[in-house]
Design goal:
Helix content is about 25%, strand content about 25%. The chain has about 140 residues and is an alpha+beta fold. The longest helix has 11 residues.
Length: about 140
């Protein structure tokens, strides 16, 4: 049987957001955004990349960028069924290709993937969430 092809798509237009949200939830990589908020996050990003298998998203990544010198890499995820096949590496390579010359920052507690791709540790950063996460009230 022929192995289905994985396509790497640099546009958010063919994504089924509720299906993606459910896949993230199954992988315990759901940070609380609704399907609508997930869509807005990707649509409002400067660059996006999805790994698609038979019309379904099995990997993602997006870049916030000022278009000049600074970018931030977020939402890098590959479905647990398809890991260790180079999918995240390909997504990141495509995103990096979109911002030549820019300094790309990210936050992670597992540097193994990024170290392999040439990312190097940075001086310790600082961050804050402005008010409650996603603007939700507690309860
Ligand atoms: C991290 C993640 C995106 C990696 O996706 P992936 O498609 O499996 O990554 P790749 O196949 O491109 O990995 C490339 C290299 O990174 C390293 N790497 C990736 N995942 C690794 C792991 N779990 N353990 C050790 N090394 C790992 C390896 O060196 C690997 O090369 P190898 O398979 O030849 O040894 C995926 O495991 C994931 O979605 N995890 C949950 C979400 C997450 O943590 N996202 C990152 C947020 S910052």
């Amino acid at each position: 049987m022929k192995t289905p092809r994985i396509d790497f798509v640099e546009s958010p237009h063919d994504v089924d957001w509720p299906v993606l949200k459910a896949a993230l939830k199954r992988d315990r990589f759901d940070n609380g955004r609704s399907a609508k908020e997930l869509r807005a996050s990707f649509h409002n990003s400067r660059h996006v990349c999805f790994a698609m298998l038979e019309g379904r998203v099995i990997g993602s990544g997006r870049l916030l960028s000022d278009g000049v010198c600074n970018a931030y890499l977020v939402d890098v995820w590959v479905s647990s069924r398809y890991r260790r096949r180079g999918i995240a590496s390909r997504i990141i390579a495509l995103l990096l290709n979109a911002v030549p010359g820019q300094h790309i920052y990210l936050q992670t507690n597992d540097p193994r993937l990024y170290s392999k791709l040439g990312f190097r540790p940075q001086p310790e950063g600082m961050s804050i969430v402005a008010g409650p996460w996603l603007g939700r009230s507690a309860g």
